[in-house]
Amino acid sequence: MIGFPTRDFAALAPVAVLASGALVVLLSEVFLSGGRRTYQALLAVVTALVAAAAAAVPAPAGAIFEGQATVDAFSVFVTVTVCGSTVLAALVSTSWLGARDAERGEFYALTLFSASGMVLLGMASDLLVAFVAIEIMSLSSYALSAYLRRGRRPSEAAFKYMVLGAVSSAFLLYGSSLVFGATGTTLFAGLHGGRGAGSLLLVGGLGLIAAGLAFKVAAVPFHAWTPDVYEGAPTPVTAFMAAGVKTAAFALLVRIFLAAQTGPGAVDLSLDRVLTVLAVLTMVGGNLLALSQRSVKRMLAYSSVAHAGYLLVGVVSARVDGARSLALGGLLFYLAAYSATAIGAFAVVGLLERRGSGDLEPAHPWDLSRFSGLARRHPGLAFGMAVCLFSLAGVPPTAGFVAKLYVFKAALGAGYTGLAITGVLTSVLGAFYYLRVVVHMYMRPAEGEVEPIAAPAALLALGLAVAVVVLLGLGAEPVIRLAQAASALAM
Amino acid sequence: MNLLGVVTFLPLAGALLAALLPRGEARQHRALALAVTLATFLLSLLLWFGFDAGPAAPEFQFEARHPWMPGLGIGYHVGLDGVALLLVMLTTVLTPVVVLSTWRAVQDRVKEFMIALLVLETAMIGTFAALDLVLFYVFWELILIPMYLLIGIWGSQNRLYATVKFFVYTFAASVLMLVAILFVYFHDGATFDYVDARAALQVTPDQARWLFLAFGLAFAVKVPMFPLHTWLPDAHTEAPTAGSVILAGVLLKMGTFGFFRYALPLFPAAALEFRPAIAVLATIGILYGALMSFVQTDMKRLVAYSSVSHLGFVMLGLAALSAEGLTGSVYQMLNHGISTGALFLLVGMLYERRHTRAVAEYGGLAKQVPLLATAFVVVTLSSIGLPGTNGFVGEFLILSGTFLSRLAHSTVFATLAALGVVLGAVYMLTLVEKVFYGALHKAENRHLPDLSLREGLVLAPMIALIVVMGLLPAPFLAPARPAVNRLVARFQQAEARVGAPTAVGTVEAAVAARPALPTGRSF
């Protein structure tokens, strides 16, 4: 029946809500130019919540728009995670920007646009739709990284991010065109070959796509942009990127990887071996590079690289039929846990950040010494940060532990014992550098001036993040069940 | 929630309550912590008296089983066998003692200190009670956080180095156990439940070897076995008194308990292969620890190295795999918790008076502080295993159990270990002599106050246990008996299965024919 595809459009409701929310924020900027803009943050929060609710409405899973996108429990889980991250990031942003007199409507509009791109990415099952979604997400992130043009760091970050992002997009696009040449379709469903199965064109195309995605998820050796961009971008933006971009990029990676590896008549392209190597390099490299950082923000940037490595273990394990639901469930759980943890940690970094005067950049704004004696000055803040750090290190009873257990269990179930061993051993390195921050917070005397911290919104975000981290560590069952249900990809 | 659940989580509830009390009220926090730990102890007495040590009793008692994260196969399954019961009792006895001992010593951030201590107690009891592999791992790792804070915040000079070393060392050794647990899950019919896993585990001998090593590494670091002991002298020395007592008293036992509960019964065939290595390392530990203690000038470091030596005895008893040796090991775990815990308390009391741990700073104190000196001597005698004290019962059982066991070259091991007993007497008595006897040559030592009433209350339960467990060991041996017999039987089955020559149990038919355990009266 040819008619207006109501169902298909209804399935896009979360994307539509986020985009319209962004437009409303922009319009409000035009008509209500003066006064405080806290309401815009509130608007962004409400928009994200509505989008999450729209996604959570039960709907029949399946392909929409003739297979160009897919709505299934997987995409719903990704959408809710992205929207949750948006809520937390918006709360952190309003405090952070408010303290710097930099709250403007564009910021939240860009955040929401970026979020809509991420949500779309979670649904994409066509190379071109995926490309458009990536660009929506990325262009907004480039702009957000340069949002606060004070000093050279943000400009440098945005420039690097844009140039390298453009390169990775070019990889993706070129790879897509090669794949189209080989298979005659841009649908993921055709990735496993069809008439072009095994051709050099298809292998080359998939390789280029994999490289482009490795950029986006910051896998070693495609991670070089991460530390500079994460450090230079405004801290709430870093938090949002660490959580949202990572979630969306991994969602896409999973769909492409599984489509290429497991479709009917798929030939062995050794893509899993490539990803295995990437996972090992990323786990080892990310953790090693984080070891020597004195800037906590930069350390967290490298830590996000390391976590991409653990997530890649989940992706690789999904290749094996028997372990797929465990691996995908673990991956989704890990993404949710990491999103909450990372935003919580970055919220504290943002609150403690040393501020410059005017256009002058302060020296070492995120140095470890900023955390010295925090447990005495702000016990709550120190406790929240400590919970997040222990979660990042994977110490029970936190979300990070359950997430690692989940993913490594999948790895063992899939027979990747070596990957699991590499994972747990590198997480020991993690314990070392996360603990250093705890040492500074709890075991060293305060250095320098003690300034009061009045940022109710950011503290609320931190409180929510810590609550999620603890709940996912102690009573994870409901979320595990959701993740497990979401692992049934509608291919 | 059953009784065991209440005992496990009461301290945690106390910690949550303490979090609500205002920071400035140090006295409230102390009183609350003491009340909660005492209540936990009283409730644990119900466990003690409710435990059925008869041969027909179920292996695990006070069992509770609830789904926790069924999506991942993780359950909340707890229960106590006799060994776990003894160690839970040790924990609940030591914790109120430790709280009382910190009354004066900890003045800074009392709230956080008591919260850490209470969380630690829940984690320790949970470790002994857990019957689910992941639940066990969660409690096992949870211990690291409060202990890390205890050493790092309230420790002495070099605390940051010591605490990071402690955390990273033990964390690194434990993560492989997590992989091993996950591996077990996929080879026992998909369950993390310990009891089910033990019954259904199917692995090749080669896999069993690796799994034994992964579990064993985590436990060997905690024990600590030579040569993995290097974190211990630092952590024990730099920790505050309370931390040292808990570390020595309970945390080290988690390692030996881990061998007894997990590494040995889950992989008996592999354990038999590694048994000579364990015995050799244990014997080296006994002698090395004793010799190192002998040359220490820092009292706490001396006691720390003596722990390496004492835990060597425990490991030797485990390696003997005879009923006497295993029983002696269990008994020695308790003894070490009590006597070394008491030694750290006493050293802490001296430190509070003189603010130094250097042996050379003391001398001739016996006349100034007669009560403290008496207590120190009693504890020392227990530590070196004088008949009449608890130390004798444990060491004798281990030495005779090793000597009569079917472990290859068991007589050599027993002889060398007996040499360790002699060395132990040498370094401990030398310490007593240097600190309490001889000339009083330091003016600062002239007017030291003797034990206060509070300090007397701290030491009284320890000394009472030393004497009671020395003269009347039967009630303390009884709960361990069924667990020990089950372990020996399990090894005998494993031997029969692989068709290996008999290597467990005792050599002499006459000994084997006797009831498996000597009663208290035979000493």
List segments of chain B where confidence is low: pLDDT < 50 over at least 5 consecutive residues: 509-513, 519-523
- Taken in chain order, the helices and strands of chain B follow as HHEEHHHHHHHHHHHHHHHHHHH
The residue-averaged pLDDT of chain A reads 87
The strand line-up of the biggest sheet of chain A is: 1-2
The quaternary structure here is heterodimer
How much of the sequence of chain A is in beta strands? under 5%
Q: What is the radius of gyration of chain A computed over CA atoms, rounded to a whole number of angstroms?
A: 21 Å
Based on Cα principal axes, name the global outline of chain B: globular
**Number of helical regions of chain A:** 19
- How would you characterize the largest beta sheet of chain B? 2 strands, antiparallel
| DSSP strand tally of chain B | 2
Helix content of chain B: over 70%
Order of helices and strands of chain A: HHHEEHHHHHHHHHHHHHHHH
What is the number of domains of chain A? 1
The major beta sheet of chain A can be summarized as:
2 strands, antiparallel
> Structural class, from helix and strand content of chain B?
mainly alpha
Rg from Cα of chain B: 22 Å
Our count of helices of chain B gives 21
